[in-house]
Amino acid sequence: MRRSWAGMALVIPALLMSAAGSPLASQTSARVRRIAYAPNLPLAARLLPDDVTVVVEPIGKGEEVVYEHQPTQRQVALELLGSTAAFVMRVSAAESSLMDEGRWISTTVTGTITEILRVPTDKARAFTVGRTLSVEMFGGRLRIGHVVVETEGAAVVEPGRRYVVFAGNGYSSPELPFLRHVPLRLNASGSLHPTAGGGSELDGMSMRRLRSLARSDQ
Q1: How many degrees, rounded to 5, is the angle at CA 150 between CA 27 and CA 197?
Q2: pLDDT(71) > 60
Q3: Whole-prediction pTM value?
Q4: How crowded is residue 18: how many other Cβ atoms within 10 Å of its Cβ?
Q5: Residue 103 CB neighbour total at 10 angstroms
Q6: Residue 68, pLDDT above cutoff 70
Q7: Is the dihedral of CA 98, 99, 105, 106 positive or negative?
Q8: For residue 143, what are the contacts with CB-CB under 8 A and spacing of at least 6?
Q9: What does the alpha-carbon distance between residue 134 and residue 108 come to, in Å, rounded to a whole number?
Q10: Are 39 and 18 in contact (CB under 8 A)?
């Protein structure tokens, strides 16, 4: 598959793209069983009596995306800043639950906004410093009965830490913005890094640089 920068897909945690292989295929390693996303079966119906941990692979696993022109870190940052509400959030809680009629997992991340980077004019009242709000993140980890079920590659956020998030329009609910990019952990040194389980072209960018781009229209 070949895509140009103009048509690139933004990085979404545990991104659901297009099916690869049979959705019913599974692999077992030690006490961890791996299964592919199934569009017609809820996760609870796919668990076995002796399961301990089940990892659900996202749609599109193994599908390689090649860009005609690899986007630069600056281009990725500007694309996100121009199409989302970008802000810094200090996380207070993260709770996973079933979505998509039980076929996938999402995580609701709650925290307090500590800094606004850039917010669309029509969303300005919804995102203000000091406000506590929740955002939705694809993927997560929860228990169904006695089995721990987790999505492969889901980003892990830690309460008490600060993250840069890029929120778009609601997915499950219009009132619950969803993350269009993996949360970026803000380190004490001022550098940004993706959360555990995630990857990002913005890995290593400084907060100072991101603030500068947020003030720019170029």
Answers
A1: 100
A2: yes
A3: 0.79
A4: 8
A5: 19
A6: no
A7: negative
A8: 149
A9: 6
A10: no
SS (H, E, C) the chain: CEECHHHCCCCCCCCCCCCCCCCCCEEEECCEEEEECCCCCCHHHHCCCCCCEEEEECCCCCCCCEECCCCCHHHHHHHHHHHCEEEEEEEEEEEEEEEHHHCEEEEEEEEEEEEEEECCHHHCCCCCCCCEEEEEEECCEEEECCEEEEECCCCECCCCCEEEEEEEEECCCCCCEEECCCCEEECCCCEEEECECCCCCCCCCEHHHHHHHHCCCC
Tokens 């890029």 label which residue?
Answer: 166
Looking at per-residue pLDDT, the higher value among 113 and 66 belongs to 113
Residue keyed to tokens 């019913």: 24
What is the CB neighbour count within 10 angstroms for residue 5?
Answer: 14
Query: Are 183 and 109 contacting, i.e. CB atoms less than 8 angstroms apart?
Result: yes
The model's pLDDT over 135-168, given as tens digits with 9 standing for 90+, comes to: 999 899 999 999 999 999 888 899 999 999 999 8
Domains in the chain with CATH codes: 2-67 (no CATH), 73-138+154-214 (2.40.50.120)
Highest mean pLDDT among 20-34, 86-100, 174-188, 198-212: 86-100
Q: How far, in Å, are 80, 98, 160 from residue 38 at the CA level?
A: 30, 14, 35
Rg (CA), the chain: 18
Q: Name the β-bridge partners of 143.
A: 148
